[in-house]
User: Fold this.
Amino acid sequence: MDIDNKETPSVEESVETSTTEQTIEENGKRKINEIENSSESNVDNKKDLKKIKKQTTRKPWAPKERKEGEVVEKRRPKKKCALLMGFCGTGYQGMQINPGAKTIEGDLWKALVEAKAVSKDNAEDPKKISFVRAARTDKGVHAIGQVISGKFIIEDEDIVDKINAALPEQIRVWGNIFNKYCYINI
Assistant:
């Protein structure tokens, strides 16, 4: 398989790979049992045991599978920055994302993806962009100055306006801070 052409592996190659992985896993389990059942309890055996467990439990890396005909987005640079925001919490179940509940972060996350401040590849998991909040709020609580940070795509000059356009009236992003010396206000 030619790496430069970035071809996908054939069925036969993937079968060989999985067979090889199974063999490695079986050999590793056998060695682990031998070491655990041996009467010797020296330090080398414990080190070997840790090493073998690590080798046999490692998952192979695989690129994200694309559907047929799916367009791959061009990668755009991300930059760590903070967003200053405010909101009226009436009708929300708090700040923190909670599946099945209407939350401030849930609506903000959807707006960030819609405004393309977060790529579609990273839209499934906030951890991928190091998304963090400065504080949480409870149900119905309002905030005038809440801070969240993450690695956002900030190439657009009017990114704050795009985010606000995608947000409901109750939530507003006041601005973004790119580094400790620069504050961009709308």
